[in-house]
Amino acid sequence: MSWRPTTLHVSFLTLAGWALFLGVLTGRADLVVVAIPLIAALVAGRWAAAPPALQIRHEVSADRLFESHGVTVTVTLRADGPAPLVELLEPLPSRVRLERGRHHAFFTLRAGEEVRWEFALRCEGRQRLRLGGPHVRQWGPLGLAVAETRYRAPQTVAVYPHLALLRHPPRPVRTQTFAGNHVSPAQGEGIEPGDVRPFAPGDHVRHVNWRATLRLNTLHVTQHHRERNADVVLLLDTLSEVGPAGETVVDVAVRGAATLAAAYLARKDRVGLIEYGGQLRWVKPGSGRAQFQRLLDTLLDASVVFTYVTRDVDLIPPRILPPQALVVALSPLLDPRFVRAAGDLAARGFDLVVIAVSPVAPARAAVPRGPVADLAARLWALERRAQLDEYRRLGLTVVDWDGVGPLDTVLATLRRPHRRRVLA
Amino acid sequence: MLRAAGLGLVAVLVAFPLAVLPSPPVSWLAGAAFAVAGAGVVARLVPLVTAGGSLALIAHALALVIARPEADPVAATAFGATLVLLLALVHFAGRAHGAAIGAGVLAAQLRQWLVVVTAGVVATVVLTAGASALGPALAGATLPVMVVAAALGVLLTVAGVIALVARP
User: Which of A172-181, A265-274, B33-42 has the lowest mean pLDDT?
Assistant: First the structure.
């Protein structure tokens, strides 16, 4: 780092020039004397010692967090020589606000002294937050000289969508073969009682239903339903979006998808994801923490990519979209291509639940308030309600979610068919 | 706190011409200087303070021309020192606005400004003493020669300072 003059020189030179000019013009020595401290200051500012070397350590408290959580940035500064005035500025990326402290600071350091500077950030919306390290400025005497550099410590913090509590995720109609939390139509070992039938060789004594046995005078046993897991595929519509940055329908849908993924994975289900948009991306169904991390990372990058190309759901391999899977589609239902794809899946017999994320509130937030905008929003909401009723008449299971209220409340009202008696 | 100190320095600055001649033309100019420099202090804008300082200088020159008092090097030095302090203060206030200020920063800055101002005062005393010694030697010089020499000196001084600060 080396000193360079600042714009303050212009002010000092202007005033010194005025004083000298007026002194000569009026023939008054007083005015020439006025210029001397100004010129002395300029010379002193130029003769400052070389800026000392600084050692900077830049630490971020977390590399992964959720929207509602904050991240603390700690900068440790140490000077090899005396630094009269050191300025540090950490540029804040968009959609990040300061929660605690300041992202701009001034310090005075003696030789070998170390200072710690801390501030907390909160991210508004999912994103990959990139913190590049602070800008460092050392100021010379009177601010007449400055030495500037950028401490580069690129660090990325993944800010995942907010997870809400979900007690009532849509129950899958079909289950898989592994143990889980869903009551399967199949009979076997389990705790959910099923049919009562006459005793057969090989039945456990503990399954004997003594009440039925006494009434019918022959041994009867109680059968049970197995608890099995399910395959759930989240189908995210990224064909279109409306709303202000960070609060678009895609952001709301991503929050919903993350919440659903967490809820299903907690129930030992296998969860997959298909991003149906300009680019067709997917995550194969799986379970466990690693799968949750994969899903969150994919959801983090979900965005609208404009394209005229319509991709059919036929392109999706069966291992990504298993035939027995429950498909939960999250969409504002603004693009007819997605509506066609959802209709296609339902027609093929997929167990499909469409969570229709309302675009009215995000669009309303993006335009200034006014009577015309209010009327348009009300008309749009009515038109949308009629459209959803039409989809329901066509056989789609559609749940309307405004994106503001809890998803759990909306899904609690969803009635799903029982299939316990279909299989013996 | 920095704003209050800045406004105090502006008040001191405009007091110099008013102390020489508290008459309407000077007081108008001093009032304008106070308004402009005060606005600069409040808005933390160095260019406005520079403009206000220039107005104060013009008001001071006007007062000196009209009143024709004895030359007062102490008051002139104080005027120059006030200008230096005011510019440094407003520049720092503008940079530090909204930032976290570490312990000891303000004290260190104040110390540094006082050192520079003291250096300026010492330079003034030395130069004034030198000029006083040189004065009798130049008593015989005719007025146009003095004006040309002074103008040349001013030009050389300003050019030298610009060359000094613009040096990489």
Answer: A172-181
